[in-house]
Amino acid sequence: MSAIYVSDVRTGEITHIDRLTGEILFDWMEDRNKLPVVGYVGYMELLNGFKKTMYMTVDELKAHGMRFSQTMKRGSGLWKEDFDAMASKTVIKLLLSKYAPLSVDMQTATLADQSVISAENEYEYVDNTPVLSEEVASDKERDRIVKHITTSKNKEELMACYNAIGDDDDELKNKYAEKLKTLTIK
After folding, report:
1. What is the pLDDT of residues 126-169, one digit of tens each?
2. What's the DSSP call for residue 131?
3. How many beta carbons lie within 10 A of that of residue 158, not counting itself?
């Protein structure tokens, strides 16, 4: 690993998202602490020159926490007490587990993260349950819809994804409605 870094992203710091490559361009502001945090970005560079950036919105991170953290579901724990640290850790952990070549020790450490080892010497933590291929496909489709909503430049473009939003996905419905409002105001 040549470099690894994580940062919060404030309102107005994202300048461009390339829908084809997924590349996100940022304009880091000097006096940024007064602006609300909208997401977190992780960056890594390997010794061979491979570079990867992963960005997650605050909403995506909260959804991740609700899905994988029992304490967050109860409204307590580190996700509530130190969201910044948990969000930063999550972005880096996901970036590394998806794109970095991991040694056996690092793979074991990733599995053991926040887990409890049972008498049978197995890890018991909801984050370590195997992910089914249907879940991965569903998550990728949802990410694609979120990206489409976020990057839509007019109502017609936005409306192209309406039928793909599930009836029970209130978060996506809200994102769609918010984006529709901003496009209608223009």
Report:
1. 444 444 556 556 777 888 888 888 888 888 888 888 888 877 78
2. P
3. 20
The CA distances from residue 85 to 77, 111, 131, in Å, are 12, 19, 24
What is the rounded distance in angstroms from the CA atom of residue 112 to the CA atom of residue 125? 9
**What is the crossing angle of helices 58-68 and 83-99, to 10°?**
80
CA distance 9 to 37: 6
- Say whether pTM exceeds 0.85: no
CA distance 52 to 32: 24
Report how far residue 9's alpha carbon sits from residue 39's, in angstroms, rounded to the nearest whole number: 5
Per-residue model confidence as pLDDT tens digits over 43-61:
999 888 888 999 999 999 9
Paired strand residues for 17: 24
For residues 126 and 124, give the distance between their C-alpha atoms in angstroms, rounded to a whole number: 7
First to last CA, the chain: 45
Domain residue spans of the chain:
3-121, 133-185
